[in-house]
Design a protein that fits this description.
This protein is α/β, with parallel strands linked by helices and 89 residues long. It is built from two helices and four strands. Helix content is 21%, strand content 22%.
């Protein structure tokens, strides 16, 4: 009998993005827009994971985590989204 396996991923989505500050000052680094529609970098990463069959994602967040929470919510591209991080300093 074969066991059912849930594919999970941890994505590092924290950081201040100090080197990007001149270009993107109002969102955290993972939310930097990457195309003309303003799709954030993190969305491209998550779509790749969904395409590879991942069912759960843990986002390691920090700076401006609420922006990421508001954009992606509790699920994205059919994957369960969880957040883990520490409070801003």
């Amino acid at each position: 009998m074969r066991k059912s396996v849930t594919r999970e991923a941890i994505v590092l989505a924290g950081g201040f993005g100090t080197r990007l500050r001149k270009v993107v000052s109002d969102v955290p680094k993972p939310m930097a827009p990457m195309d003309a529609e303003g799709t954030p970098f993190l969305a491209f990463v998550l779509k790749q994971l969904a395409g590879q069959g991942f069912a759960k994602v843990i986002l390691s967040v920090g700076y401006m985590a609420e922006v990421i929470q508001q954009y992606f919510g509790a699920s994205y591209a059919g994957m369960e989204m969880n957040r883990w991080g520490q409070a801003e300093r």
